Amino acid sequence: MEDIPQNKELNVNPKDQPPGTGVNMSEIEALRDHFEQQKANKLKAEQLVSTLSRIKAKEKATRRSPKIGDKKIDDGISSQTAKRSGTNSSNVYTGRSNLLKKKLEEDRAKFKSKMEQEDLCQVSQIVEHIRVQLEDQDKTLQQMHSNFATSAKVPPPVEEVAPAEPDIPPEVKQRIADLELKILDLQENLREKDSVISARTQAITLLSEDMARKGKNTLDTLEETRTQMKTMQANFVALEDRMNEERARLREELDTKKVKLQQLEKNYRAAESARFDLSTRVAELQEKVVLLQTKNIALEEEVTEFSNKTKELSEALENSNKQMIKMKAQFKAKLKAVEEERDMQARKLS
Fold first, then answer.
1. pTM
2. Where are the domains of the chain?
């Protein structure tokens, strides 16, 4: 695209212009002003393109920043939850921390959507302003083209008595030809710039439509996420209530089992004490039997009497042994049942 000619090249004295050439210097001045306006519009369009580039870069940066923020939030939450105990309450804290993280993501998405809407409104205003200016410039160009065509088509007035045409110097003719060539070049440059501005305007329109569509998709996604958050929060509250009820029931059952276990331990200690007493009595009886056997030689006359007593003592000892064996068996059975019940309770609690 050729550069716009400088203003001093268009400064032609209207008196030097020969009659009947069809070139209006006021229209040339207007065309020069129009080119200057086109140049200013080109600068505005370039500024708009740079603004859109910054908006895209900002959007990419905001897409990367939530990942970094989520990582920091996850690290902070994991460091806090690691310090808590391993009881059931850690699950509650984890759920609340997840809710907090999702709330931060929701606020970040709202802020991002608000910034995109503000940028979109600003771009739409700039596009509308440029569109109005382009429409005005198109009207001006059409009017100027029609004026040029009219001035070129209208023949010079015919006088009844045609005076002799003055001789035109070659320099003036060359100057007129140069001016006509410059006008053609300016018209060509104007058409090229109009096509460039039209293409950029179309690109800006498509970009604004794309940003509007992305903004609508973001709002729809945000609304769906908000609905899911409400549902998850309600489910979490119901689950927390059920867990509290189950924990209270298990605590009550554990207290009951502890009371039963204490009673069984008490019975076990009583049985152990009885067994020790029986063992002591058996030992004493055995000592007496040994003593009687040692005295058996010297006391043969008293064998009959002592044999009866020994028989009675042996029967009592046998009965005691049977009772002790029976009590041992019962105690082992009870102890085994208690251990099985305790193992089952421990498996349930784990």
1. 0.26
2. 7-15+22-153+174-244, 255-349
